[in-house]
Amino acid sequence: MSFLETNEWVKESSSYVSKSAQAVLMRSVYTWMTLALVITGLTAMYIAKSMTIINMMMQNQFMFFGVIIAEVLLVMYLSARIHKISFTSATLMFIAYSILNGVTLSILFLVYTMSSIATTFFVTAGTFGVMALVGYVTKKDLTRIGSLCTMGVIGLIIAMVVNMFLHNSMMDMVISCIGVLIFVGLTAYDSQKIKQLLGVSGIEVNETTQKIALMGALTLYLDFINLFIYLLRLLGDRK
Fold first, then answer.
1. Whole-model pTM?
2. How far apart are the first and last CA of the chain?
């Protein structure tokens, strides 16, 4: 075997190892995301069945908003310190966030019927799965779409705050429709971005890449949750 042939063999082997590592890490992304969704769902169902906890949150708004603030701070800290904390610590924080999110989402079980929640979940899962696949396989650069959707989230938050005072049902419907479109776009964009981050030449499975995969799982988890909430606002049957 000549030097050139040997060199080509090394390149092909490295490429195979890189693709193999990418496949392992991508599976980890969706495994952690699914685990987080299961934890959130079980927590929400448990809290919804505990009238003691529900009454505490309903009577003490500081407790409810305290949980929301804790969620925001936890995500901010995890995003800012992911490169400095250990993978174990990052995983525990991700699980903690899933539990806290389950506490806040438990309110949905009091507002919407169980059947409509289940139906909307499957609709969300199907939509999310299709868009994640589109983002993964498409050759088109979705950066522009991602940027527009990210700016759209800011506008969405402002519109929701304004409508809290207006209580306009038509505006609420429009916000929900726009929210679905935004997070459908973000799902495809984030799927592509995660694939690119985990597809760098020479990548291997280590603590650093596992933390990248974990943050990818958190990103897709948030896309799924938000898509579910906006679809539920459109499709859900209120009690």
1. 0.89
2. 74
